Automatic annotation (TrEMBL):
Keyword Membrane: yes
Record-given protein name: SH3b domain-containing protein
InterPro entries xrefs: SH3-like_bac-type, SH3-like_dom_sf, TPR-like_helical_dom_sf, TPR_rpt
Species for this entry: Bacteroides cellulosilyticus CL02T12C19
Keyword field: Membrane, Signal, TPR repeat, Transmembrane, Transmembrane helix
Lineage: Bacteria, Pseudomonadati, Bacteroidota, Bacteroidia, Bacteroidales
UniProt keyword Lipid metabolism, yes or no: no
Length: 279
């Protein structure tokens, strides 16, 4: 009886823990309830009523009518975010010669599907055509490795990993608490520790992905060039110049007309808000 009490108490605690990973996915689903992101994207009834379909955008793209494709994809995205639509929109802008907006939409697609190799490859191709070449401040290898691990899956994928590992953890606990053989108890104990760690990591990674999606603080320079100044004023000292397509981090978003930005190499300054667009 005592074993059963301990088992179900532990299960209850684990369920409360795992719910945080599911909440990350649910929050995003509520924010984008008109779209199901994945390989079989379904758009809302509103988009269908307006006779706007992804197939039409794809058809226009194949016919090299990039202006029409851009218009259709932009209309679709007003109904909700989808990685493949952002990706196709980025391709359309790239073909139309607007590198800055191509990078912007590739970055948005990558936020939703960070592990997508095609999106990342096209983003790198577009970045290669930008003028500014910024050398980032080197990171400790462990930090870079952790970021790569987190970004190998989306928030939904990490949530699913957490759920699967949770059920495997329950199975391991069952063997540990109720098996009469010492071997199975040891296997259940070791496997339980492994799956507990995986559940914790999956929840942390899902939460991190959720934060990146909901609290976006990176932007792309869209104007051909912009002067970065020391103060939020045209009279401020000119520090350096950035060109279209450059990715920046918004350090201070408190002002309406000006944004304090930071580059990957640590440089900071102020730019007009109209010169950048948040990813």
């Amino acid at each position: 009886m005592m074993k059963k009490i301990l088992f179900f108490t532990f299960v209850g605690l684990l369920m409360a823990l795992t719910s945080s990973g599911q909440t990350a996915s649910d929050t995003l689903q509520q924010a984008n309830d008109s779209v199901t992101i994945g390989s079989h994207t379904e758009f809302s009834a509103a988009a269908q009523e307006n006779s706007v379909t992804k197939a039409e955008g794809d058809s226009a793209y194949v016919k090299n009518d990039y202006a029409s494709a851009i218009q259709i994809y932009e209309a679709l995205l007003k109904e909700g975010e989808a990685a493949e639509v952002y990706y196709n929109l980025g391709n359309s802008y790239y073909k139309a010669g607007d590198i800055a907006k191509a990078i912007l939409n590739y970055e948005r697609a990558l936020l939703i599907q960070p592990g997508n190799a095609d999106i990342r490859a096209n983003l790198e191709i577009a970045r290669a055509k930008t003028i500014d070449k910024v050398i980032p401040v080197p990171e400790v290898f462990f930090v870079s490795w952790t970021k790569s691990l987190i970004n190998c899956l989306s928030v939904d994928a990490w949530a699913k990993v957490g759920v699967v590992c949770f059920f495997l953890l329950l199975a391991s606990l069952y063997f540990f608490f109720f098996s009469k053989q010492i071997v199975w108890k040891k296997i259940g104990f070791i496997a339980g520790i492994v799956f507990l760690v995986l559940v914790l990591l999956a929840n942390v990674f899902a939460f991190q992905q959720k934060n990146e999606l909901l609290n976006r603080n990176n932007a792309i320079v869209l104007t051909p060039s912009v002067t970065v100044r020391s103060t939020p004023s045209e009279s401020g000292t000119s520090l350096f110049i950035l060109h279209e397509g450059r990715k920046v981090e918004i350090k201070d978003n408190s002002m309406r007309e000006w944004k304090e930005i930071r580059l990957e190499d640590g440089k900071v300054g102020w730019v007009p808000a109209s010169s950048v667009e948040v990813i």
